[in-house]
Amino acid sequence: MTAHSDSNDDIAMLEEALPLEALPLDAWHRAQGARMVGFAGYHMPIHYDGIMAEHSWTREHAGLFDVSHMGQIGFSGEGVDEALEILLPSDIKGLKPGRQRYSMLLDQDGGILDDLMVARPANGAFDGAAIYMVVNGATKYDDMAWMIEHLPDEVVMNHMDEQALLALQGPEAGEAMATLVPGTADLTFMQCGAFEWDGVALWISRSGYTGEDGFEISLPAEAAEAFADALCALRQVKPIGLGARDSLRLEAGLPLYGHDLTSAVSTIGADLGFAIGKRRRAEGGFIGHGRVMKELADGPGTKRVGLKIQGRLPAREGAQIFVGDNLVGEVTSGGFAPTLGAPIAMGWVSLPHSALDTALEIDVRGKRIAATVTPMPFVPHRYRRAAA
User: Which SUPFAM superfamilies does this chain map to (predicted)?
Assistant: First the structure.
C-alpha cells in the first residue's frame, strides 16, 4: 500500500486478500465510519475522514491507530536470553527491565525474515513474560514457526492472541495518555511498563511507527472498545486509519516489512546496523552472523535510500531506478508526503549510486522523472527522549 492513496488501484489490491479475520475493534471502527479494507489477513480501517486529514491531525494532535493485527509474543523459561540471542542479532542479555529495542529475525543467509520490537518487563510484570516481542501481522505465524524450530524445549513461547494492541501517536499523545494513565508521563522513548486503567491491566511502551511521540498499548481485547472510547473522548484524539499510518511512516523513513525489507535484503544494506550492538558484532553466535560480518567489512552490494522526487508525480513500489541506461535499483515505498507537499520514495539501489545527492531517474509509467538520494527521515522524528 502506498501513502497518498484513495486510489482505486491501491484499494482494490488491499481488498483482494480473502478470507479476512476481524479485529477486536471491528464493529467499533465501522461505527466510527471507517472504510474497511483487507490488510495482513484482517479487515482494517484505511481511513475515517480521509487520509490527508488524518495524516495532518496526527502531525498536529494525537491519532489513535488499531494495530491489533500485529503478533504479540511472550517468552519465559530457563535460558531465555541465551536462546533469543541465537535468534536475534541484538543484545538481549543487556536489555534492562522496563526497556525495549528494535531488532530483527534473520535467516541462515542473513536475509531479514521480519523486523520487530523486543522488551523486558520488570519482574515478569506482563503476564509472567521474561521477554515480550511484537512482530509484523503479515509474518507472525511464519515468525512463530521459525522460532519454535530454533528455540530449546526449556523456553516457552506464548502467542498472546487475546490481547489487542493500540497506538496513540502525535505531539499531544503524551498529554492525552497522562489524562487516563498518569504514570505514563514519566516514560521516555523506548521505555515501557505495566499500568492500570479502570481496573484493566495495560502494558504500555513509549514508541510507535509514525516518527512522532506516542505510545503502544497492549490490553485485553474485551477492554479495547472502552479504552478507545475513553481516548477518543479527549479533545486531542481522533481515530486514524491505515492510509495515514503508511504516509506517516514513509515520511519518518521507517521501513515496511514485505516492501522495503524482505528475506532477499540484508541488515547492513537496510541501514539497520544500529540494532546490532558492539558485543554481538564481536561475539557473533546469532543466525545470519556471517553475512552481517562480511557486509560490515566489505560493504553491501545494494543499499536502502531515501529519494526526493522532482515535480508532482509520485513513484510507486516497483518503479525502476536508472542512471542513464543502467538499471541501478527499484522503488520499494513511495507516495505523496502531505507534510512536505511533494512526492517522496524509499528504494534499494546499487552501492555506487547510494551516496547522498546522487542524481537518479525513476521510470514512472514510461516517463523518466528526476530523483535525488536524500537523507532520511524526510520529516524529523519527534520522540520524547531522556535528557542527556
Answer: Aminomethyltransferase beta-barrel domain, Folate-binding domain
Q: How confident is the model at residue 19 (pLDDT cuts 50, 70, 90)?
A: confident
CATH of domain 8-69+162-251: 3.30.1360.120
Prior bond of 89 cis (ω within 30°) = no
pLDDT at 124: 82
Asked if residue 249 lies in contact with residue 256, where contact means CB atoms within 8 angstroms, the answer is yes
Angle at 165 between CA 160 and CA 169, to 5 degrees: 155
Total Cβ atoms within 10 A of residue 286: 22
What is the Cα gyration radius of the chain?
20
Asked if residue 15 has pLDDT above 80, the reply is no
**How many Å separate Cα 192 from the centre of its chain?**
17
Q: DSSP per residue over 69-81, as a string?
A: TSEEEEEEETTHH
Question: Which of 28, 381, 9, 93 has its CA nearest to residue 232?
Answer: 28
Question: What is the spatial distance between Cα 380 and Cα 362, in angstroms, rounded to a whole number?
Answer: 25
Q: For the sheet containing 42-47, what is the strand order?
A: 21-22, 42-47, 35-39
Nearest to 35 by CA among 70, 8, 2, 69: 8
Q: Alpha-carbon distance 223 to 241, whole Å?
A: 20
Chain-centre distance of CA 239, in angstroms? 18
- CA 184 – CA 178 distance, rounded (Å): 6
Backbone angles phi, psi at 52, to 5 degrees: -60, -45
The CATH number of domain 301-374, selected from 2.60.40.10, 3.20.20.30, 2.40.30.110, 2.60.40.1520: 2.40.30.110
